[in-house]
Amino acid sequence: MDPAQSPVVIGVRELVVGFGDHIVLDHLSLDVRRGEILGVVGASGGGKSVLLRTIIGLLPKRSGTIVVLGADRDTASFEAMRAIERRWGVLFQQGALFSSLTVRQNVEFPMREYLKLSQKLQTEVAMAKLGMVGINADDAEKYPAELSGGMTKRVALARALALDPEIVFLDEPTSGLDPISAGDFDTLIKTLQQTLGLTVFMVTHDLDSLFAVCDRVAALVDGKVIAEGPIAAMLACEHPWVKAYFQGKRARETTHAFNHPAS
Ligand SMILES: Nc1ncnc2c1ncn2[C@@H]1O[C@H](COP(=O)(O)OP(=O)(O)OP(=O)(O)O)[C@@H](O)[C@H]1O
């Protein structure tokens, strides 16, 4: 199904989030539709991570509504919200793996929290998830400190997929990776999204990622979404920030490659 026609799985309306007298999100509204990869871009410190963390309930909002998979945290019961939380996975910036747990134990962690599976089954599922993201079985007993940046991201992605989520939140998944590893990671995200039918909410600064994987992009400026749409619409957008971002010097090469794919 064309994601543009799919049901809304994340609906944010008039969201206000702030710290003291610093308003970060100022009556922000945004929809994410089932099956799409939405890229969220914006200036550094503009509130992209705050938006992600507020949607998943890690930060409080001042006002507005957030409905995820039909549940509104303001009105849903604790049990209902916990059941909904099982249906999403999160890859935090830097991976955020537990340093005292092995790769396998990190992936088992959400299962321990939410499911009652035998240890044997947990291990089988964790190993399957690690296989999906391209981590060798030989690396499963390593600790996070022994992993490269790319491997850390892959393990964090495996952990995000542990509970077979419908939505995956990715906070700068390719930051800190060299261009080839970042490109491989983009391909992995796209493949998983297509094979598992995931909805992906991805905060990124990486123009290559936006062009390679996103169905739609939302630009967050001054606490609001000032433009949203497919890449082609963003390239045609006249808003000064969007123009500078997508048509600036840094963007030109990527845009050129997008418009002139190698045959
Ligand atoms: N827990 C917090 N307490 C106080 N201020 C915070 C907190 N979390 C974020 N902020 C502030 O909110 C603003 C937005 O931060 P956020 O991390 O969302 O930016 P970002 O758009 O993700 O930036 P970057 O692209 O650099 O990661 C920043 O000014 C930041 O200092």
TrEMBL record:
The keyword Nucleotide-binding applies. Keywords: ATP-binding, Nucleotide-binding, Transport. One of its GO terms (molecular function) is ATP binding. Residues 10-247 form the ABC transporter domain. The keyword Magnesium does not apply. SMART domains: AAA. Gene3D superfamilies: P-loop containing nucleotide triphosphate hydrolases. It comes from the Bacteria. InterPro entries: AAA+_ATPase, ABC_transporter-like_ATP-bd, P-loop_NTPase. This is ABC transporter related. The lineage of its organism: Bacteria, Pseudomonadati, Pseudomonadota, Alphaproteobacteria, Hyphomicrobiales.
